């Protein structure tokens, strides 16, 4: 009788253990000899009434703050827009330039200290009036001074082919030119022919070429 009772107790405990392992949370306490299953994850606590009230109050505060914002405010990407600017095509890129600021483009064939003339003007804004070229504005030109030639940040290029034992790592540093916009000319001062680069002293350049 004792052997049969022990066998029945063992089978009952085994069945209880299997039942416990299939449930992550058991409302009833475990029986004697039952091994608790490992806890695989933590369940998030349920939101109480006070938490929901706080969230609703915070949402209302945010809505009131945004509703009080006047229409004069603009998004961050539209802030500090200059009153006058020029869009030029230089070095294979279209750039928005302003007088008195410096920019970096791909290497230009101009010596440091020389003056370049950007004749490929796509658009120009001044005194609240903006004009667009077709494709360029012939009566607008940008003069700039070349400050220095430099190299950009190093770019690592990695090539890989699976199952071919092919791996190549190369580096590249783009050659750049930094220039500062000195003036923006309009009308007859801009000139007729769009010259890409003009030396500061054309006579000296002619003598050196000769």
TrEMBL record:
Family classification: Belongs to the bacterial ribosomal protein bL21 family.
Organism: Auxenochlorella protothecoides (Green microalga)
Protein name, UniProt field: 50S ribosomal protein L21, chloroplastic
One Pfam short name: Ribosomal_L21p
Classification via SUPFAM superfamilies: L21p-like
Lineage: Eukaryota, Viridiplantae, Chlorophyta, core chlorophytes, Trebouxiophyceae
Keyword RNA-binding set for record: yes
Molecular-function annotations in GO: rRNA binding; structural constituent of ribosome
GO cellular component: mitochondrial large ribosomal subunit; plastid
Keyword Cytoplasm: no
Location relative to the cell: Plastid
Record keywords: Plastid, Ribonucleoprotein, Ribosomal protein, RNA-binding, rRNA-binding
Gene Ontology biological-process annotations: translation
């Amino acid at each position: 009788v004792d052997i049969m009772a022990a066998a029945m107790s063992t089978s009952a405990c085994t069945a209880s253990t299997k039942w416990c392992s299939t449930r992550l949370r058991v409302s009833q306490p475990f029986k004697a000899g039952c091994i608790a299953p490992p806890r695989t994850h933590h369940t998030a606590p349920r939101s109480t009434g006070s938490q929901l009230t706080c969230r609703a109050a915070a949402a209302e505060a945010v809505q009131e703050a945004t509703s009080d914002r006047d229409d004069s405010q603009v998004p961050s990407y539209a802030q500090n827009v200059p009153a006058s600017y020029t869009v030029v095509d230089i070095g294979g890129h279209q750039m928005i330039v302003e007088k008195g600021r410096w920019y970096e483009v791909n290497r230009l064939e101009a010596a440091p200290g020389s003056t370049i003339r950007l004749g490929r003007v796509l658009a120009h804004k001044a005194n609240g009036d903006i004009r667009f070229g077709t494709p360029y504005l012939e009566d607008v030109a940008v003069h700039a001074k070349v400050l220095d030639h430099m190299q950009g940040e190093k770019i690592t290029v990695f090539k890989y082919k699976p199952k071919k034992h092919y791996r190549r790592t190369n580096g590249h540093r783009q050659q750049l030119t930094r220039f500062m916009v000195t003036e923006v000319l309009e009308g007859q001062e801009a000139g007729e022919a769009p010259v890409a680069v003009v030396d500061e002293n054309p006579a000296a350049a002619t003598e050196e070429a000769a």
